[in-house]
Specification:
The chain has helices at residues 39-46, 52-55, 73-80, 85-95, 102-123, 134-144, 153-164, 183-193, 219-230, and strands at residues 2-3, 18-19, 21-28, 31-38, 62-64, 69-70, 97-98, 124-125, 171-172, 174-181, 197-202, 208-215, 235-239. With 242 residues, the chain is α+β, with helices and mostly antiparallel strands.
């Protein structure tokens, strides 16, 4: 097996299995603990799908993997309640920060842009009610220098839309909906509601009543997420324009 630190070498060596080594770290109280891992398998472990023994590049826990400073058994016991390397490594990968190669971060960003642009293509129109082309939307996004992050695409679209209004006439066709959410689910759905919420009112029985403006092309997805959380216990009513 041959290891390379740069992913682009893979293009010139298609016949070699590429192993990308990165570090994962987790701070517990005042101490930082690190493990050296193979990125692809560690990513699977982070998603609770991989094999920790295959993910580990080195069967040791470090304070600093780059410097090779090993963590003491005493500190490991105090921080994790065990000195077992596999158990600790899994905790570090799943709860801590997994270093991502630049190529992976670039691909993530491009995928996120594609998702957000896809939402705009399905929902946004100009001042005459005509949809924008993908090329025009991408050029407008470049003009406003929008900083995409790891949030889901539908959570980033409202913020991006406000910035795009500075350079092009753009709006999203929305549907006004009144929702009544049982009190036992209100905390779980609040994050889902906040980007589209026009107003809210807490009822005397503790239920949450919210008036929503949901992009027309996202209604089905919105209701699916809402029903997955509330098991269909939400009462909804479509309202006319304000």
């Amino acid at each position: 097996m041959i290891c390379f630190s740069h992913l682009n070498l893979y293009k010139s060596l298609p016949f070699i299995f590429l192993m990308v080594i990165v570090n994962a770290k987790l701070k517990v109280k005042s101490k930082t603990f690190e493990v050296s891992v193979e990125f692809d398998e560690a990513l699977k472990v982070q998603r609770r799908e991989g094999d920790i023994t295959r993910a580990l590049n080195s069967p040791q826990i470090f304070y600093n993997a780059r410097e090779g400073s090993l963590a003491s058994q005493k500190d490991l016991m105090e921080a994790f309640g065990t000195a077992d390397t596999n158990t600790i490594a899994k905790i570090i990968i799943q709860k801590g920060e997994l270093q991502k190669p630049q190529e992976f971060r670039d691909a993530e960003r491009e995928n996120k842009i594609k998702q957000v642009v896809g939402l705009l293509l399905r929902n946004a129109v100009d001042q005459h009610g005509r949809p924008y082309t993908e090329d025009r939307l991408k050029r407008a996004i470049q003009e406003v220098h929008f900083n995409f992050d790891n949030r889901p695409a539908d959570r980033q679209m409202p913020e991006l839309l406000e910035k795009l209004k500075m350079v092009i006439p753009i709006r999203v066709e929305t549907k006004r909906i009144k929702l009544i959410i049982p009190a036992r689910f209100s905390g779980q759905v609040y994050g889902l509601l906040k980007d589209y919420k026009e107003s809210e009112d807490w009822l005397s029985n503790g239920d949450l009543q919210a008036i929503m403006n949901v992009p027309a092309g996202m209604q089905i997805d919105f209701y699916e997420k809402l029903n997955n959380i509330t098991h269909g216990a939400v009462v909804s009513e479509e309202l006319g324009e304000k």
